[in-house]
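In this section we turn from sequence analysis to structure. A common task in structural bioinformatics is to predict how a protein folds when a small molecule is present, because the ligand can shape the pocket around it. The inputs are simple: the amino acid sequence and a SMILES string for the ligand, here flavin-adenine dinucleotide. Study the lines below before reading on.
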Amino acid sequence: MILIIGAGLSGLLTAYRLKQAGIPFKIIEARHRIGGRIHTVTGSQPIPVEMGATWFNDSHHNLLQLLDELGLDYFEQYMEGTVFYQPDVNAPVQSIQIPKQAPSYRISKGSSHLIEVLNSKISPDDIVFDAKVTKISFGENSVQVTADKTFQGTQVVLALPPKLWAKNITFEPTLPQQLIKIGKETHTWMEDSIKVALTYKMPFWQDKKQSGALFSNAGPMTELYDHCNHERSTYALCGFMSTSFKSLEAAARKQKVIEQLQNAFGTVATDFIDYHESIWSHEEHTFATSESLLFPHQNNGNSIFRTTYFDHRLFISSSESATEFAGYMDGAVAAGNRVGNEIIKKEMGTTR
Ligand SMILES: Cc1cc2nc3c(=O)[nH]c(=O)nc-3n(C[C@H](O)[C@H](O)[C@H](O)COP(=O)(O)OP(=O)(O)OC[C@H]3O[C@@H](n4cnc5c(N)ncnc54)[C@H](O)[C@@H]3O)c2cc1C
């Protein structure tokens, strides 16, 4: 029995690969939901908005290949028309044209659709929810994973960001010192970001030949984009808020966003259906404080994560372990595939 810690993209993909190979596994997930840093939500209306991972591009081959394998569609980020730009807090918002960029894409039906499709390939009994792993012990030929209850297996996969296992899980015997040190000093991509989305009855920006995009050095929103669905039948704007607004009360933060949008798009922007906000540093199963200042992507893709430990009974996964596009969905797919392959190779003595 392979024990996989974490039901994010990397953990679920490893689980699917093991399922395809007929190898038994169990996913142990701390949250009450699947997806980890991928989280598409809806509000009072069924309008999907991304609170986590959203965009990818033509270089993200691992993700593109997986979408193709699963028969999932994707579409280009809408960028038709003018863009709003505010260079600093004292400058007015300007309406500008930007040159055509290399396209970025979104997954049709939302990023969580990929997660749901992977989940549909395994059985509901294969996942245990609300189980935060705190200890992993290695015996002669076995592994014991402790959450509220204990799970027995033969191998374990750490499909959660390195900083989380290095800080929150006790290993017996202890992991090599250097591995723990690097784990604690590995930046978790987007762990401290704030995502905001507003849903609307009409795409008023599109009617005015605006792209819906706004870039601001003043904030609170630093980047905002059109967030309509693939069919352009549901309407929303979605983007990132500056983390400096985290300390405000939720109501004050929301008010500042509304004022900013009103200032750029006009009063029509205040007539939204739902306001969504996700402060990822409040999510204990994504964010962990760092003992030293980490720069973005620090130690992402470090080769120490692609070694197995305890006689091939500990495998390290998560997007942060990938050689390319570590921290992104593409890295999570690469990591999920790599660990799945390594386990299958070991179990079956074959390469796939
Ligand atoms: C706001 C935001 C925006 C992003 N935007 C993009 C984007 O546009 N494009 C892109 O490519 N990527 C983006 N990303 C990154 C992308 O979401 C990740 O690369 C990817 O989802 C990581 O998947 P993962 O399986 O490696 O890790 P995670 O999704 O972090 O999954 C880890 C899982 O482990 C669980 N877990 C944690 N601790 C424990 C424990 N002790 N016991 C049991 N379970 C535990 C967690 O609950 C989680 O489900 C974004 C991320 C965020 C947060």
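The chain has two domains: 1-38+110-187+288-352, 74-107+192-282. As an exercise, try to locate the residues that line the flavin-adenine dinucleotide site and compare them with your own expectations.
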